[in-house]
Every structure is written in C-alpha cells, then in structure tokens.
Design goal:
A hairpin with a 2-residue loop joins strand 1 and strand 2. By secondary structure, the protein is mostly helical. It has one domain: Farnesyl Diphosphate Synthase (Orthogonal Bundle). The radius of gyration is 18 Å and the shape is globular. The longest helix has 26 residues. It has 15 helices and 2 strands. Strands 1-2 form a two-stranded antiparallel sheet.
C-alpha cells in the first residue's frame, strides 16, 4: 500500500475513534440542565470538543489488537479520558500551573470560577470510576476489578498525582535525567500506559510487551511535549507555550538540551516499535500511534 494511502487510512481511523469517543463521553456526562446545572456544564466544557484523545486512541488500538469488544472499549476509553480531563482542570488552577488557556479556549476556572473548577475536576474523577464500575458489559469480574485497579494506580500518589507533586517540588531546581524520567513516568506516562493496559484488559490479561510499549510511548509523549513547549506557538498548541521555562520547571529540554531530547524521543519510538514485533501486522495502529506521538507538531 502506498505511504500516502496508509497515512490517509490512519487519519480516517483516528477520526472515527475520536468521534465515537466524543459521543460516548457526551452520553456518560450528566446532562447540562440537571441540577447542579453549573457544575454539570463545567464538566462538559472541560471534557467535550477538545483534545487529541490520545489515551482513548491507545485504548482502542490495544483492544483491537487483542480482539476486544467495541462496547467495552467505549467504556474504558471514556474512563481514562475523564481522568485525563479532570487532571487538566486541576493542573490549570492558580494553586498549580495557573494557566488561562487549554484546548484553545479559556480554562475552566477562567470560564466559570475556581470553586466550580475544583468541583468539576473532583466530579470527573469520580465519574470515571462510576462509568468503569457500572457500565461495563457483563463479563469477567476479575478483569473488571483489574481495570479499576489499573486506573486507580495510574491516577493516584503512585501515578499521576504523585508525579504532579514531584513536579511542583522541583520548580526552580535542576534534575538529572533519571530524576526527570521518574517524575514523568508518574505524571504523564502512568495514565498513557494505563490506557494501553485497559484496552487489552477488555479482552483478557495484558501481554507484557504491551505494557513495555505503553511505558515507552508515555515517556515519549512528555519528551515531545517539552520540545513543543519550547518550539511551538500557543495558537498551535491550544495552551500557553513557553510556560514551563518561564516558571522554572525542569523539563527534558532543560535537562538534556533540545537535540538530545529529540534523539531520546526517537529512541523511545524505536523501543515502542520493538516491543510490538511479536504481534506482527496486527499492531499497525499501535505503531502508527507511537509515530504520531513522537512526530506530532501540536
């Protein structure tokens, strides 16, 4: 198949999954008119009509590889995206990163207010677990429990929240590559790795190579984010560019330099591809997503 055809077909697949997940999220979120209406409107504002949906795409790519049911993947994709959306709402608060732009529009605390943003994040987090617990089609209860545990570990103090705590403590400091890697294994990598694992768990136990793939793609995502924060504009990114350097936050770029950071991202992409070798052509979507994460410009 010609390269252009492959790229067009991948873009069409991505678009179809993004639309499917958008519809599933809209169904999962409380209706905007339901009391308390302002809170429910803020939750929908934070979640819908924005973002690349990388984590849901990874859920579907991993799930399709192992033959998972699409209805299960809808639920897992919604759960991981709700956690991601809550994390962005809280990250943007004045007590955290104090940002005013997210996904090309005002952040939730700017559009609404700080208290509503805090509650919206709390409610999105709990909704993720409610969706995963209540709406998963009947099947193996042990696998469903494993999915809940996977999402909880990726979200808590040994995952995303812990990474954010380390990030806040590291402001103004110089970190080694090992230290910054550990921080981002938790802050960014844990939820991306969980997305891959959740997709696989929709059909059965997650194969070890998929966990290795998720770890490498999760790190690569953050390396590229750090590069884009330096090189891209706010209009392109849909969020404030250059914020990390202005706030004195350690990044892969500040630790390694831009050239070495770019090389590291390529090494992680190669490692992600290598982890998929045993799956053959069936892992095409996961390979393409690794390429998308490393080669993206936004």
């Amino acid at each position: 198949m010609p390269q252009g055809a492959t790229e067009a077909e991948f873009a069409a697949w991505m678009g179809a999954i993004q639309m499917r997940v958008e519809a599933a999220l809209a169904r999962s979120l409380p209706a905007p008119q339901h009391v308390p209406a302002r809170l429910h409107q803020a939750m929908r504002y934070a979640t819908l009509e924005g973002g690349k949906r990388v984590r849901p795409l990874l859920v579907f790519a991993a799930g399709e590889l192992v033959g998972a049911d699409a209805a299960r993947l809808d639920i897992a994709a919604c759960a991981v995206e709700l956690i991601h959306s809550y994390s962005l709402v809280h990250d943007d608060l004045p007590c955290m990163d104090d940002d005013r732009l997210r996904r090309g529009k005002p952040t939730v605390h700017v559009e609404y207010d700080e208290a509503t943003a805090l509650l919206a994040g709390d409610a999105l987090q709990t909704l993720a677990f409610q969706v995963l617990a209540e709406r998963m089609p009947e099947g193996d209860a042990a696998l469903q429990l494993a999915m809940l545990n996977t999402l909880a570990l990726a979200s808590g103090s040994r995952g995303m929240a812990g990474g954010q705590a380390i990030d806040l403590e590291a402001t103004g400091k110089t970190l080694s590559q090992a230290e910054i890697e550990y921080m981002h294994v938790l802050k960014t990598g844990a939820l991306i790795s969980a997305a891959v694992k959740l997709g696989a768990l929709c059909a059965g136990p997650c194969p070890a190579p998929l966990e290795q793939y998720g770890h490498r793609v999760g790190l690569a995502f953050q390396v590229v984010d750090d590069l884009l924060d330096l090189e891209a504009s706010s209009a392109t990114l849909g969020k404030t560019a250059g914020k990390d350097s202005r706030h004195g936050k350690p990044t892969y770029v500040s630790t390694l330099g831009a050239a070495r950071a770019r090389q590291f991202a390529e090494e992680l992409r190669s490692g992600a591809h290598a982890a998929l070798e045993s799956f053959g052509a069936g892992a095409l979507r996961l390979r393409q997503l690794a390429d998308f994460v490393v080669l993206r410009k936004f």
